[in-house]
Every structure is written in C-alpha cells, then in structure tokens.
Amino acid sequence: MIRTLLASVTAAVVAIVPVAIALPAQGADPVVFTVGMEQDVDSLNPFTGILAEAYETFQLQYATLMSQSVTDYEPAPGLAESWAESADRKTWTYTLRPGLLWSDGTPLTSADVVYTFNRILNGRYEQRNYGNYVRNISSVTALDELTVVMTVKTPTPIMQRLAVYILPEHIWSKIDGKAVKSFANEPAPGQTVVGSGPFLVVERRTGQFIRMVANDNYYAGRPKVDELVFRFYNNPDALGQALIKGEIDFAEALTADVFTSLEGKEGITTYAGAYAGFNELAFNRGAALTDGTPIGDGNPHLLDRQVRLAIAHAIDRQQMVDKILDGYGSPGSTIIPPLYTTLHIDPGTQSYDPALANRILDEAGYPMGPDGIRVGPDGKPMKYRLFVRSDSDSSVKAGEYFKSYLAAVGISAVIKPVDENALFEIIGRGDFDMFEWGWVVEPDPDYQLSTFTCGKRSYKDGGEIYADLSDSFYCNSEFDALYDAQSSETDLAKRAEIVKQMQQMLYDDVPYVVTWYSDNLEAYRSDRFTGFIGQPEGSGSLIMQYGTYTYENVEQVTADTGEQTDGVITATPTPGATDSADNPDNNAATAVTAETGGPNLGLIIAIVVGLIIIAVLIVVILRMRSSNLADEKE
Prior knowledge:
By secondary structure, the protein is an alpha+beta fold. Among the domains are: 63-166, Dipeptide-binding Protein, Domain 1 (Dipeptide-binding Protein, domain 1), CATH 3.90.76.10; 277-518, Dipeptide-binding Protein, Domain 3 (Dipeptide-binding Protein, domain 3). 32% of the residues lie in helices and 19% in strands. It has 19 helices and 23 strands. A seven-stranded mixed beta sheet has the order 8-9-10-1-11-21-12, with helices on both faces. A six-stranded mixed beta sheet has the order 14-20-13-17-15-16. A four-stranded antiparallel beta sheet has the order 4-5-7-6, covered by helices on one side. Helix 1 crosses helix 19 (601-633), helix 7 (236-245) runs parallel beside helix 8 (256-262) and helix 9 (305-314) runs antiparallel to helix 11 (354-363). 45% of the residues are buried. The model is unreliable at 1-22, 563-609 and 612-634 (pLDDT under 50).
C-alpha cells in the first residue's frame, strides 16, 4: 500500500511542480551565451509573430521538415532525412528520421507533421505566415509513423522549401482556432515550451529578456552551451556598451556608428555579414479587405502612380546608405536583394532626380502652393503621415531624410513614430499614408512575392479586422497570375525569368520605394566564445540565418580553441571583460542577472525545489495515513 501511495502522491506533486522534470539537465556551472539586440519579439506564437526576432525563436524551438544548407541555402535534411517526388509530379513523400522526440520525451511522428499542415490548410489565422507554402497542397496524410505523403494540385518547386515549423499535436491540439489568436506560447514558471529545436524557451520578460535552455532531445545533438539568453536594449549605444562591459557575448544588428566604435576593442571581433533583407518606404495603395471592401483612411493622392514615382525620384538612396548606414550597404531597387544573384534585378530607372520629380508632379496636376506645399487635384495639400519605427534607430533617421527629400519637391511629411507592434496593427487597418520598414527575404522568392497578392490583404473574422502580409495593399490581377505561374514552374531558369518580370512590375507600379540593402553588423566577445558560422558560409550573417548553425556550434573559448579554421570564425582568448548591472540605459541586463545570477543558481534552485517536493510528499503522506487510520478506527 505504501508503494502505491508514494507513486500516486509523487505524480500529484509533479503535476503541481513540473520543474523537477521539465527542465533539461545542466551542470552546476552552466555555460550561458547571451545575445543583445534592440528589438524584442512580437510573439512566441508561430502563427502570430511576424518580426525577424520572433522567427529566430521559432526556428530555435521548432524544427522544419527540411533545412537550408549553410553553404548555399540549398534544401538539406531537417526532421525529414529524405523526400521524393512521384513520376507524375503530383505526390511528395517525406521520410522522417527514426527516433525523433519532443523535448518532453513524447515521440515526434508523422502525426505531428500531418496535424501541423492540416491545421494551416483548414485555418484562416494560421495561414497568415504559412499560407503560401500550403496553397498548392491538396492533402497531407501519414503512411506510417515515419512517412508523410502530400499531394499537390500542380507540380511546384515549393515542396522542397516548406518553411513550416512542425508543432507538437499533443500540445497545440488543445488550442482551438479562436484561442490561438491570443495564445502567447510562453511557458509556465519552471517549465519549458515543448519543442524539437536546439533550444527551448524557459522564461520571458517582455521588453527585457528571453531565456532558453538546451534541448537534450534535439535530433542533431545537444548544443555546446547550456543556456541562450536574448537581452533587449533601449538604444544602440546601450547595446554597444553592454558588449564592452561583458553583459552580453554577442551584439546583433548594430548601427554603423556603434559598430565602428567597437572596432579594435580588446576581446571583441566585429563582423559585417551579407544580409538577405531590404528596407523600404511603403505607400497605402488603397487599403481593402480580401473581398475588396475599402478600409482605412489613406490619402487618395497616393493612389496616383505619378505621385509615387515622383517620390521615388526625390529620394537619394546613396546618401541614405552613406549617412545612415555609414556605407555598410548598397542603394535599393527591387524586392529580391542582390545576395540572390540568379533572381535579383536592378532596372536603374528611378535615379535620384529632384528636378524630374518636380516636373512629374507639375504635369500630373499637383501645382506648388504659395507656402511651398503642392496642392492635389482635389484642392487639398500634399501633406501625408509618415510612420517610422520608434524602436529602430535607422528607421527614425530615415524618416528625417524622407521628410527633407519630400519637402524639396513640395510634399509635407508628418512624422509619426510608433513601435513595431503598433505599426503592424495600424497597417492592417489601413490607417496610414506612408511608412518605413523592411523585410528579410527567404532564399525561395515565393513568400516575398506572396505579400503583394490580392489574397494577402487584411481580412475580417468575427467582426474584427486582422492584418495579413500585404502592407501596401497592392492588388493586380496580372501580378497574381504571374505569382501562380512561378509557384508551379519547376524549370529554375524559366521560374527566375517570371520572378524578374514580377519584380519589374512592382518597380514600375511603385507600391514601395526600396531604399537600401544593408549589411548585418554584428560583434561578439571573441575572448569568450568561438565556433561562429556564417550563412552563406564565410560571408553571411552569424545569427538571424535560415538555420541555427551558430547556436548549435558556438562554444566557450578554451586552451584548445582560438585559431581560425575554414568555415568557422574563432578567436584567440584574451582577459575577460567585467560584468556590470548599473547601466541606466539597460534594464534587461539587471533583470537577467537577477534570474541567472551566479554560476550555481541552477543547482541551488534544483536543491530548493527538491526539498519542497520532499516536504510536500511527507505532509501529504502523513495526512493520508492519518485519514486512513481514522477511517479504520471508525
């Protein structure tokens, strides 16, 4: 009887206090790798988050069927060790690695893959981030625990690049289509999010930090560090100082001035990596829902292509690269960056020419007013709201340059700084005229091209308007037809020509003015950590990749590490930096230090929790025993 009683009480205590089994085992002295950045994630829910920082946490926690090669972005095995297309090109078969486990020990099988894809296929909210991957899929089924079969409507190259994070059915099936819209996907105290990637979120404090722990069940092997922490800073200077003081080990997306100030600092290596992104000035092209119902309050002047074209000629992209990026980048043109050499085009016809911009506006019927502000055909001044991201130093600076450029051609730009989360909602409602933001472009162009299709405009559900991926509300039936054509063209050369034609169409219609392609400016404590890997290998970013290569391979500098090796950036050890928690511009550093504290904090917590569990066990056993004795006496 005692044995059964102990087992049942232990189960009850574990259910109440899951720390004892939820956290992966760590040594008494965990190795913590800390990354500093300015922007917090908008959500840890893969169906909700849209920021690059959010996608970084998604890929760290949830693996995909295929990954993308570190050397050249080509498809590589992920959860699936192999895949094959049928002879009629209508069926794809994916074979999973044997022995896959979720972090909680539950087997990861074909059922989880089928669940994830069918949830996206059958959901509306779930399709915002992943709809383009499944739009051509007609069915997803499992042959056995290791085999997934997908049928497609037409042959498509997308099936080798399904960037869909596979979710654990035993967790997510409890969250219905309504609840998922507000589901935070944050762990309970002491627990981790259940995932399959190299790291798992164990703690989040919004605006301060996200703490992750290594996943012992990761299919590619446990990472070399025990914990991964993302700390968030209020401004770029605080981020740079945190690296110097040793509060962080890696600084991501530095501004040019801070990056330059770190060059030559002892124990710090700076790195300018090739980046797959662009920034843009976007216009409200007539906000509407997917059914064409108008929404928002955009200025009708911006529906006129000539106005947008004039603005494109008014902007000095090279000056913005020189002044804002300090030369770490190149002037923008089209939405596929030059990193993807087989797809990128640069028409080169929208050069900086204020005189031409003025002439275009004159001829289009926007005469200059006595106050230096032009007047539209409707008799209203050319005065437009320009939203910039208050949490981005480069966006704020860009806004001031835009304002100056537009003033020179008789357009008044009223700067409206808001944070990125607020801006996403504003855009989704169509309550803007212009805004500054940017995109990170996947190696396969389908996702980026999909953001300009009519079907990716906002939609209504239950009386509420929800933003999808279209932020300019561009809608062109010819563009949509080309989108369908490229998504089913399996001849890579022919597909590239269609993609180039689509870029030219967008360039000519001017829903965006692509301002620049920036380098990703990064710096790290080379006296502490080594093993950094760029993607593409040797020239690309060290983190914020299409993969988790650096996170899996980074390790502490020891006597055996420190020399440059092919494909891996390493560093020679030098005396370590001092830690600091008194930086007035950095709340995150203090907060995380309080949580992760000294080297033995994990051990102390484990001991305390163990003592609590033992105490609870004793109390419960004694009470139950007393109750049983009382029953027997009765």
